[in-house]
Amino acid sequence: NKQILLASRPVGMPIDQNFEFKEIPVSEAQDGQVVVRTLYLSVDPYMRGRMNDAKSYIPAYKLNEVITGGIVGEVVESKSDLFKAGDKILGMLGWQLYNTVDAKTIRKIDDSMAPVSAYLSVLGLTGLTAYFGLLDIGQPKEGETVVVSGAAGAVGMLVGQIAKIKGTRVVGIAGSDEKCTYLKNELGFDEVINYKTTTNLDQALKEACPNGVDVYFDNVGGTISDAVMNVLNDYARIPLCGAISSYNSTDGDIGPRILTKMIKTRSLMKGFVLSDYAARQPEGLQELGQWLSEGKLKYEETIVEGFDNAIDAFLQLFQGTNLGKMLVKVSDS
Length: 333
Ligand code: NDP
Prior knowledge:
Elements: E1 2-6, E2 19-23, E3 33-42, H1 46-50, E4 68-78, E5 88-94, E6 98-102, E7 107-108, H2 125-138, E8 145-149, H3 154-165, E9 169-174, H4 177-185, E10 191-194, H5 201-208, E11 213-217, H6 222-229, E12 232-240, H7 259-265, E13 268-271, H8 281-293, E14 301-305, H9 310-316, E15 325-329
Parallel strand pairs: 8-9, 8-11, 9-10, 11-12, 12-13, 14-15
Antiparallel strand pairs: 1-2, 3-4, 3-6, 3-15, 4-5, 5-7
Helix pairs in contact: 2-3, 2-8
Residues 44-46, 126, 129, 150, 152-156, 174-176, 179, 219-220, 224, 241-242, 244-245, 272-274, 317-318, 320, 322, 326 line the site of NADPH dihydro-nicotinamide-adenine-dinucleotide phosphate.
C-alpha cells in the first residue's frame, strides 16, 4: 500500500516538498469494515485551503497525516453485510492505493448508469455544486443573462449548461482559446471570453452582455469578478462558489471590490458550501441524472494516469490545464 501525506504547509503555490509518499501495509478489515482499492481520486481546488492551518467550514489537513478527498473504488474484501467484493463505492477516503474503512462511511454507486468516474464529477459533488449554487441562489429566469467564471472547469461547464436548460443567455469566462471554442461549439454557450488574452475585459463583457448581467456564478474571485460586477443589472444574484485566484495568494483575498455597485443595483451576493444542501442531494442527483440520460448535459474529464502523479494533477488545477473535472486514474476497474 502507498499513501500521500501533507509533510509541511505550503506558502503560496504548493511544491513537491510539501508532500510525502509513504509505503504502508494494507490494514486487515475488522468486523463491519471493508477494504477498498482506489480506482479514481478527485483533485479539487478547495483542498488547497485545507492545507493551511486555518479555521474553515471543513477541518484543515493535519501534518504528517494522509490527505483525504473524494475517491471512487472497488471493494476487494468485505466484513460487512452492506457490501460484497466487486461493489463500486464512493467515499471521502485517504489518498492511498487501498483504504480499510467502516462500511457505513461509504456509499455504493451504480456503474450501469454511468462510468464510475462520473460519480466524482457530474453525478457527485461537482454536479450538485453547480445545480444548487445556480438554481437556489442564482435563480436564473428565462431570457436573463448568466455569466460564469472558471467556465471550462468541472463546476463551471455544468453551470453554463444548466443555465442554458433554463433558457438564459450564457457567457463563459475561461483561460484558453481551446476552452472557449469547446464551450461555444460543443456546449452551446452564447458568448465566451478568454480572460488571458483579452486586452480589455470590461469592454469584452459589455459586448458579450448587451443587456447586462442578471446572474454571476463566481468560481474565481479577483479582478475577473471586479470586471463582472461593473455590468450587473438591478437585482442581480451572485452565487459565490469559489475564489481560486486567491487560494495561493500570500496577501489574502484580492477582490471583488465593487460594493457601491452592489448597493446601487440592490444585488444579492451569497457564499455557499455544498454541505448546506445535504438534505436535498437526492433531488439534485435525480435531476442531474435525468438531464444526463436525456443528453441535455455533457461532461468532460481530464484524466491524469497514475497515483504517483496525484500531486502534479492537483497543481495543474492552478495552471488551468484541465477541461472539465480533473481526476487521477489510480487503477483499472
Ligand atoms: P475547475 O475544474 O474549475 O479547475 C480550476 C480552474 O480554475 C482551472 O482549470 C483554471 O481554468 C481556473 N483557474 C486557475 N487559477 C485561476 C486564476 N488565478 N484565475 C482564474 N481562473 C483560474 O475546479 P472546480 O470546478 O472543481 O472548482 C471551481 C471553483 O468552485 C473553485 O474555486 C472551487 O474551490 C469551487 N468549489 C466550491 C464548492 C462549494 O461548495 N462552494 C464545491 C466545489 C468547488 P482557466 O484555464 O479558465 O484559468
